[in-house]
Design brief:
single chain; 397 residues; mainly alpha; Actin-binding Protein, T-fimbrin, domain 1; 3-stranded antiparallel β-sheet; 11 helices; 59% helix; 5% strand; rod-shaped
Length: 397
């Protein structure tokens, strides 16, 4: 039998399977939910009343387990427990890492704080040092200005003193060279054959011309060249000049003047026979002798070059009388026309521009030309002929 869907009473087909009492409410569609709620409340009230009447003991709710699913449930519980343990372990690791990170962060904050404190201290120290450096810079600039002014003043005075000393040295050199010229008695004498020509007298001997050596006697050449060697040594010493060749004065083992390169073979300028005999009989010895004469001539040319006397040809270098005359005019100037001041060249030309070999060849060639009849004039000038006609060169000026 069909019961009512609301109150469980016998239903009627004509009432759409509801009882007569409930069917009357169907027309009230909005009251159906309320009817259902009231029904449920009344049912719940009945259940509570029955429980209170029958048994008042509390029984907690227990979940019923289906025996068919008991094994799978235990497997799920074991996996769940294992997963829970792994999660707890991970949680503990993360918790410890978080703790360490917090500790490191705290240390970093402490280090940063300390760094800021150190930076502040360094900033204060740098500021103090900057102030000190500025003070030191000002003191240094002040001392530098004072030192500069002192150096300038002292340098000026020293420069003036050096110029004065240099002028004094030059004046002393000129005075010594003048006294040296007077000591050696440098004079000039007119030739008997030609009144327009002069011979230079060094002491009491005529100074020979190296291009006409056969015209002079043996004694005249030896005495004049020996005195010329002494003159070159003293003049170089007074003028502080380094001669291009070494002049070896007479000593105990060697009684004659010798010429040489520094530390090389030495050549004597003393004639043991006449120039003609030596050239004809001993040409090799004559070449060595002329080499020594060329060295002496270049030494005299070095002294002339230091006094700003320009001589550039072997012909001029061989004319010893002319070179010595020019040097004498520098040593003993004309006081009526020029002041008594030294006149050295600041950068004198070196006499080595005239080659030793070229000068030697020139003298040898000229000597052989004279010996072989290159000149018809054979006026031998000796010491005795020169003594009687001496004339002071200073009296002629």
């Amino acid at each position: 039998m069909v019961s009512c869907g609301i109150c469980s009473q016998p239903a009627s087909f004509s009432k759409k399977f509801f009882c007569a009492s409930c069917a009357s409410f169907l027309v009230l569609d909005d009251r159906i939910s309320l009817i259902n709620s009231c029904t449920e409340v009344s049912s719940l009230a009945r259940d509570i009343d029955s429980l209170l009447i029958n048994d008042t003991k509390y029984k907690p709710y227990k979940k019923t387990t289906n025996p068919a699913t008991k094994g799978s449930s235990s497997t799920i519980d074991t996996s769940h427990i294992r997963n829970v343990g792994v999660l707890k372990t991970k949680a503990n690791c993360l918790r410890s890492q978080n703790q360490r990170a917090r500790h490191e962060a705290q240390q970093l904050r402490s280090a940063v704080k300390k760094g800021w404190e150190d930076a502040e201290r360094l900033k204060d120290k740098n500021e103090t040092r900057r102030i000190r450096l500025k003070q030191m810079r000002e003191e240094l600039e002040k001392k530098h200005r004072l030192q500069k002014s002192t150096i300038i003043s002292q340098t000026t005075s020293k420069r003036e003193a050096c110029i004065h000393v240099k002028n004094t040295i030059q004046q002393l050199q000129l005075r010594f060279c003048r006294e040296l010229a007077y000591l050696f008695g440098i004079r000039r004498r007119k030739r008997k054959t030609d009144e327009t020509s002069y011979d230079i007298i060094l002491g009491f001997s005529v100074l020979p011309d190296l291009s006409n050596l056969p015209h002079y006697s043996q004694s005249t050449i030896n005495i004049a060249l020996e005195r010329l060697a002494y003159f070159c040594c003293l003049a170089a010493y007074y003028l502080d000049i380094r001669l291009p060749y070494e002049i070896l004065l007479p000593q105990r083992n060697h009684c004659y003047v010798r010429m040489a390169h520094f530390g090389s073979t030495k050549h004597s300028i003393f004639l043991t026979s006449s120039v003609t005999q030596l050239a004809q009989e001993q040409p090799k010895e004559f070449e060595l002798y002329v080499e020594g004469l060329s060295m002496l001539a270049l030494c005299l040319l070095e002294i002339a070059s230091s006094r700003d006397i320009q001589l550039e040809s072997v012909t001029e270098a061989a004319q010893l009388s002319r070179v010595l005359s020019l040097i004498y005019k520098q040593f003993v100037p004309d006081t009526h026309h020029q002041p008594e001041t030294p006149s050295p060249s600041p950068n004198p030309p070196s006499p080595t521009a005239i080659n030793l070999e070229s000068l030697q060849d020139y003298i040898i060639n000229q000597s052989y030309l004279e010996i072989n009849g290159g000149s018809n004039e054979w006026n031998f000038i000796d010491k005795e002929a020169a003594i009687g006609s001496l004339t002071d060169i200073s009296s002629k000026q």
